[in-house]
């Protein structure tokens, strides 16, 4: 956050000192021009701003903002009535409105008991116009020399412009800083500081649109649940953060994929290291790293699945290939890097649905375990879309296996095409689930409506294996703070 109490106090002190110096100057001017009533008023104003320095020290900023505005408004109105419109004192009321609204912003940002300044701004407008009307019918009892009026007009013009320029520039800096902070929070994982799925989706787009071949790897901390069970979730956070620091320090694009999973994506370059060697060196570094939490030393290992781009293959397919190799490694001993050349696991360990090539029920169970972990850590923010295929067994009997499979794959293609930033699972022969995270979570209502629309449109046109009477049923639920696990989230449906 750009604005904090230290900065707010510094700015308030600066303004109080400036106003104090201005009133000392005004005291001298009024004495020289024999405007005795205003000279007396300025004595009280000088004492007032000495008191305001104490108020800022005590951090009574809401009181400070209102008191300063009322003092300036009263002083300037009285000065205009006594010396005339030509002295230019009324101009300062315009600059004070800008400062007042900035003070309200500061109060809101620092969660102070601020006073809404719109009524003060209206009061300033009334005093400004009222002074003009009053002088129209009642001449000022004092007149300042032309030289003094000219000097004061220049002074008030400079002050008002400086106030406006300062506050507006400050608000631009604050707005830009807030946008950058929001963009960072949206695109980076809070715990590890690594890019998240939303940020990585942009990287994926640039890789896929580029002409260079690329590689993608997905990694997973081995037996991470045991780390949480033994050292608690604080110990698990320590491991995640430390692993994230190691993975991100090696030059390749690395992000947190979810839970204890991390993903790499990089273009293949002749000057760059061999991806397999690069990942295996990372694996060894993590294995040899001296993890220590609460005085206890322990070892952590990771498994990596590595896949390469192939011409005509979508990046989603490359990610699924890497994911498949990761879990092949998990089921063949862990602590290894698996690619096509080093594939050791058979199909029995696969977490991919063979028909649709999205993740299967076993993968969903693992995702559910990860989401439950996030819920326990109070960091969960996700939704789940559930898509049910109507009478899938009857469909096979009436249409045949081939058309039934085309129907299932067609539905899956629509789902994956809509939810490009989320993981899709086929958890049963007639059911898909989508775990909505990051950008898809924020756009969930729009995406859900878009998916249903595509189902209806495809059924009407006979596309993607859909037809009239075979439109899937769709439901969506989101995590709420009262939910204790994924099961309770699904209970909303």
Can you offer a commentary on this structure?
By secondary structure, the chain is of the alpha+beta class. The chain folds into 3 domains: 5-187, no CATH class; 188-350, Alpha-Beta Plaits, CATH 3.30.70.270; 352-493, Alpha-Beta Plaits (2-Layer Sandwich), CATH 3.30.70.270. The protein has 16 helices and 12 strands. The chain has helices at 5-32, 36-57, 61-83, 92-109, 118-137, 146-187, 197-209, 224-248, 275-288, 315-330, 361-376, 392-399, 401-418, 438-442, 444-461, 486-490; strands spanning 214-221, 253-258, 261-267, 291-293, 296-298, 302-308, 337-338, 359-360, 383-388, 423-428, 431-436, 473-478. A hairpin with a 2-residue loop joins strand 10 (423-428) and strand 11. Helix 3 (61-83) packs antiparallel against helix 4 (92-109).
